[in-house]
Write a structure and sequence with these properties.
There is one protein chain. About 2% of the residues have low confidence. This protein has 24 helices and 15 strands. Helix 1 runs antiparallel to helix 2 and helix 3 crosses helix 5. Helix 15 links the parallel strand 4 and strand 5. A seven-stranded mixed sheet has the order 7-6-8-9-10-14-15, with helices on both faces. The two termini are 51 Å apart. The protein folds into three domains: 184 residues, no CATH class; 172 residues, Response regulator (Rossmann fold); 167 residues, Rossmann fold, CATH 3.40.50.2300. With 546 residues, the chain is an alpha/beta fold.
Length: 546
């Protein structure tokens, strides 16, 4: 009990010292010792050891205060494990027991933090199955979350909730916190600076992004809330100087740069003076602690790695668990292989084989044969011929344990790989790919060899998002370079998410419907795209349910 008091007094070191000096646990103290150790572990940002200790605790034998510690600790463990609904349930259960005022305020903030991380579907599902105490909190979340950016609508939502719950504990301090939060989240930029590399290798891409960004600006309401936009040309060697110039000229939000090396240079500055949305993401080799130093830093990109992870999620959601990976023998192919395999394993899947292919035509057949173990089947036949010293009839057999294939590549490669999969009798195995397998323009004659292949891409390309702007782009930018459509859409979304950046970071469950995908943000400020999925049929992409 003394150790628990130290923990609640924000002195886990003294609690740990006290526990280390205790004699061996007796039956009576084992449960409390496990609870104290779990609570200490969560305060140190641990979760696996805390969860193991919590499994040794018998909640029904705890008194009211001990149950408060138990549920608060369980809530923190659930937050670490991103089980936000479980975290909210645990924190709300802890609110039933006696606590000092300052700890009660902390607990209410924890409850709200858990509710903020839940998506709308989870919120409503939890509400349907929740207790009365949980429903009171969930009703607050349902009313407040959509209105955090609008102070007038927020006040109406809170007053409506308070009229139904005048005695609720959240009225003590959390409501005031929500008003303060709304004020910070609703603050809009007055002057945006767009930093892009218009000269050299990235010039064409920069132009397409700028055109999309400014098209979104022109289409936005012409009222006092529309910011001024200044456009700067920048490369990696000048990024710091141009960035500082833009801030000195009054920019309170920076969008860009685009080059990865320029983004790395910018992030190496540490804390940034104004909110900044980079248009690329740093490599995993960059120290994440450096990238996380700035609460003003946000990152957004058309990331191939994110698309590979999305493909893993799609394949697992359709019930597959044993995958083979085919990717080009290039650094790009290696990155996609690594990302797909990593996410696949996180989701409980097994990668049976990772096979690379080269650029020569005979490389495609050989790679498919290796991926499907056809080469081993051929070796067994050869050995049998030699052993029998006679001609035998042989029909190669592919491995039978694979139930999904991830194929990374561009059209020139995937149009040849898919027919080889059919030839080697893998036509019944679903094949998943990224947007790179589709040019963005329907070409049934060239793409009929891709029939059956599933891929994730922007909803904009399929008329499933902002069809009017897509039509305008095709009419007004008809002579643009191949691939410009996706970059134009990227520019559209880069402008349209600016008012939501703070909310997206605060509410990881928030989804913004973009033209490049459903947009959400992870806790590190990185925007993640959830793609629209299609399948080739008669050479034409056909939408399928996610």
């Amino acid at each position: 009990m003394a150790a628990l008091a130290y923990i609640d007094g924000d002195d886990p070191d003294s609690a740990a010292t006290l526990l280390s000096e205790m004699p061996a646990d007796t039956t009576e103290t084992a449960s409390l010792s496990a609870l104290a150790l779990a609570a200490i572990d969560t305060l140190g940002n641990g979760s696996s050891e805390a969860l193991r200790q919590l499994e040794l605790v018998e909640p029904r034998k705890l008194n009211g205060y001990q149950k408060s510690v138990y549920y608060r600790t369980l809530g923190r463990v659930s937050m670490f494990n991103r089980s936000y609904s479980d975290a909210a349930t645990a924190f709300i259960a802890a609110d039933e027991y006696v606590l000092p005022k300052e700890k009660r305020n902390d607990l209410h903030n924890d409850i709200w933090r858990a509710l903020s991380h839940m998506d709308d579907t989870t919120i409503h599902t939890t509400y349907e199955n929740g207790s009365r105490r949980e429903k009171d909190w969930l009703e607050l979340a349902i009313g407040v979350r959509p209105n955090l950016h609008n102070s007038v609508a927020l006040a109406d939502a809170i007053e409506s909730w308070q009229s139904e719950h005048p005695q609720h504990a959240a009225n003590l301090s959390l409501i005031e916190t929500l008003y303060e939060l709304s004020e910070s989240l609703s603050a809009q930029s007055r002057h945006v600076a767009l930093l892009l590399p218009f000269d050299g290798t990235y010039g064409t891409a920069a132009t397409a992004i700028r055109d999309g960004f400014l098209s979104a600006w022109y289409a936005s309401p012409k009222n006092g809330n529309r910011p001024t936009v200044s456009v700067y040309s920048v490369d990696a060697s000048r990024v710091n100087g141009v960035y500082d110039m833009a801030v000195a000229n009054g920019a309170d939000l920076i969008v860009g740069p685009l080059e990865k090396s320029a983004v790395e240079t910018l992030i190496a500055r540490g804390e940034l003076p104004v909110r900044t949305l980079t248009l690329n993401v740093v490599d995993r080799a960059v120290d994440p602690s450096v990238a996380g130093d700035s609460a003003r830093l946000f990152q957004f990109a058309l990331s191939p790695e994110d698309e590979a992870a999305d493909a893993a999620e799609k394949a697992r959601s359709e019930g597959h668990s044993r995958a083979v990976v085919l990717a080009p023998e290039t650094p790009w192919g290696q990155r996609l292989t690594q990302e797909f395999a990593g996410r696949w394993k996180q989701l409980g899947g097994v990668v049976l084989a990772q096979t690379s292919y080269g650029g020569k035509e005979n490389s495609y057949a050989e790679s498919v044969k290796r991926a499907l173990n056809i080469d081993k089947s051929e070796l067994r036949a050869k050995a049998l011929r030699q052993a029998l010293n006679r001609t035998i009839r042989f029909e190669p057999r592919r491995r039978a344990d694979v139930d999904a294939i991830f194929m990374a590549g561009f059209p020139v490669s995937t149009r040849q790989l898919v027919p080889h999969l059919r030839y080697f009798r893998a036509e019944s195995v679903p094949v998943y790919s990224t947007s790179h397998t589709y040019t963005g323009v329907n070409n049934s004659a060239a793409d009929q060899d891709l029939d059956g292949l599933r891929f994730g891409d922007m909803p904009w390309l399929f008329g499933a998002a902002d069809h009017n702007t897509y039509t305008l782009f095709n009419r007004s930018w008809s002579n643009s370079a191949p691939g410009s459509g996706r970059l134009f859409a990227f520019g559209l979304d880069a402008y349209r998410i600016l008012p939501y950046l703070a909310r997206m970071r605060y509410q990881p469950g928030l989804r913004i419907p973009g033209v490049s995908g459903q947009l959400r943000m992870n806790p590190n400020g990185r925007v993640i795209r959830e793609l629209t999925w299609a399948r080739f049929a008669s050479g034409i992409p056909t939408l399928i349910d996610r």
